[in-house]
């Protein structure tokens, strides 16, 4: 009895699954397919605006790792048209593996300054972000810390928090230190920072600010937009408290400027909807999308002349950016990763 | 049964299935031959021993905790009588349905500085900041051991309990009459006899611990699986990562060999079950302690996380319970059900083939097909993409050249990729369960059926299938629950716009938005409960007025048996 009902049950499931697989494979007429390293809820508002304006549907696969490998193996049959990334390393990796194609577009050239895009148009930066020092309002006087270098100063012993040294954001900053000071000095600096840590590197950028508000530490490293996301977080009001407990420090204003990186996109080599991908790319660099990025995500628009959101103006104002080229930073990332292991930064 | 034509056919069947299922692992092996650079000198000089140290500490800690909890609880519910025993008997299985990453998020939310527990303490004692008092840090090695143990102990519990039930009561009675106290009798007689089953459960626990990434990453415990991802992602060295993954497999093979040896010994213990069952009557303080122990374990692994999730989910129920959410839940359910079906079918063929075409090659093949269970999920996913995409592209080339049409990514671009990953990963579970069921069917049954003119297929259908249906069912159930919880492979392999409950939960929880992910997490557990309850029905003891069937319970031991 049991085995018969078992078989029947399985059969029903199989039929349901078959119909379900079929409905999935039916595709819309005008579409653009996106592999995204950025979380869906971050890009949704902008993508929705794109669909509304052009009628082109967007479809997204989000994953935090492995999309480059997936694209590589899928080869010319890959359905992906566009890859969205949250750092430069992934863009470089795509180009190195020959998975992108160059896009030649007047619109893009006009909207995106040269330092934020590939010379041959293999990839384009869409937003910039600054790596900031978050400092406790109560325990750190304004002006007490002004540069990344000072994070290694012994006076901060037991007062610094950061995420894993292996995270792309950390690696990017360390790579820029190598570009500026060379490997040897950067190693010393990294050792100094490690000696100052209040706890083992853990959590994301927001978790560090939270730690400051809880008194675990006084200084942390974090991307600029997290501040905006926290201080406007109606859904989880405790994050507003975290943000209120810190001052933002834009490091190195007196010399090379604050470390910057980009989020960006590249059109895939075998994009089946190449034209739509280019349209989306142009849209993302356009006034409306750039404004949305700034307004909703608190990132800095790459496009000059787009108004920065009120909140950004209020808290961040104008500041000096490190203009080290993205390609150069990317070239030092492997060395940075090695240094992080050598000083056992995460342990 | 010699090399009759039928045995040869079964040999080929086993060969084909085992190779297909082993394709992802083989692909990872292949990757390991092409590293970007030799990762080992650097690792050796820097962090390798940190990784290994953390891995060993975590494994040892989880092993100890699951042993004490699992065996202790199993002993209590199967050998003693105390208030709530009948409930705990199946209730203790519930934490099995809770994914480790979910419980990690929940307890962090509860026990961290800003969480309600510490808030309450601060308010009660007038402390201002974290510098005023000490509180154990949840995001730590200890925390990781606790989280993994709380949801993994059911493996040990399930198997230990089955083993205790199978033991012949008269042996214990003999040990007692020879002067053993109940405690001595447990240590000297019952425990050693249950050892093989416990070892099987433990090897499962350890493999789950080794391939875990979500929990350890969240808790900043840097084990080898963190090392694998780091080598791959931040150093761009997929080949090097594959090498580390393969080296951890060596450790697993060691475990498996250990387990197989244990199982070989198990065969000597032919149980005469159900006879002379006697339970110790616990009274007073002891009864209370037993009830308390079981309650705490159940509360920790199930009660507390459920309450927290419920509170979050109900707070905003209307805005989360959308059509989208329901279709996501349906995706999860269907995928897991189909994967359970596939592993049941393939597992049956493998186990039966191994029975008919006995031999070292077949045994090795079946063992090899199970290695996917120990591979970290995202690495396994890359291993799935490689052969599937290669097949798709070859087929597509062919179709374009000769048929003037394109077949595109037939397999790797569809849900099939996820199904394949689930099957390759969890087949070990279902094959193990069916094998152990089949082992109990005496070969004379086969011979009788064959001599009455049935061929091997008819014998399988008419004789074996009814006899091993409990094994098939329990294997399928465990696979179902495992698939509901699976995250890393699903995340990478899914088609456009396709979510499962696990990916839905991950998206929000990884960005500190536990509230929004709560409903998804709750659904994973609730849907996962269904099979756990089914399983518990199969575990019912004799007092429930049913025929005692320890055999059904015993199907699970070799759940992940790699033998």
Average pLDDT of chain A, to the nearest integer? 88
CATH class of chain B: Mainly Alpha
Shape of chain B: globular
* Total of domains of chain B: 1
**Cα-based radius of gyration of chain A, to the nearest Å:** 23 Å
Structural class of chain B: mainly alpha
Largest sheet properties of chain A: 9 strands, mixed
Low-confidence stretches of chain B: 268-276, 541-563
Beta-strand percentage of chain A?
5-15%
Number of helices of chain A: 14
CATH topology of chain B: MetI-like fold
Strand content of chain B: under 5%
Q: CATH first level of the largest domain in chain A: which class?
A: Alpha Beta
> Can you give the mean pLDDT of chain B?
82
* Greatest contact between two chains: A-B, 66 and 70 residues
CATH superfamily of the largest domain in chain A: Periplasmic binding protein-like II
How would you summarize the topology of this molecule?
The complex is a heterodimer of chains A (347) and B (563).
Chain A: H1 2-25, E1 31-36, H2 40-54, E2 57-62, H3 67-74, E3 82-85, H4 88-96, H5 106-111, E4 124-136, E5 160-161, H6 168-181, H7 183-196, H8 205-213, E6 219-223, H9 224-231, H10 238-244, E7 246-249, E8 260-267, H11 274-285, H12 287-297, E9 300-301, H13 310-315, H14 326-342
Parallel strand pairs in A: 1-2, 1-3, 5-6
Antiparallel strand pairs in A: 3-8, 4-6, 4-7, 4-8, 4-9
Helix pairs in contact in A: 2-12, 6-7, 6-14, 7-14, 8-10, 9-10
Chain B: H1 5-32, H2 40-45, H3 48-79, E1 80-81, H4 85-91, H5 100-111, H6 116-125, H7 141-166, H8 169-177, H9 182-211, H10 214-218, H11 224-233, H12 238-266, E2 280-281, H13 284-315, H14 317-320, H15 323-356, H16 360-368, H17 377-403, H18 415-439, H19 443-451, H20 456-485, H21 488-493, H22 501-509, H23 514-538, H24 550-554
Parallel strand pairs in B: 1-2
Helix pairs in contact in B: 1-12, 1-15, 1-16, 1-17, 1-18, 3-4, 3-7, 3-9, 5-7, 5-13, 7-9, 8-9, 9-12, 11-12, 13-23, 15-18, 15-20, 15-23, 17-18, 18-20, 19-20, 20-23, 22-23
